[in-house]
Amino acid sequence: MLRGQRGSVRSRGVLLTDFGDYWTVVMCVRRAVTCVRRAAAA
User: Domain residues for 21?
Assistant: First the structure.
């Protein structure tokens, strides 16, 4: 699933070149938040 998500993010980045870097940062932040929540729950 991670590979599919990365592929979709890359395609979106290509379509929205202006927001490519911003979108990448947002996705990284989301992953960090989810990891922290999992660690806290576990």
Answer: 2-41
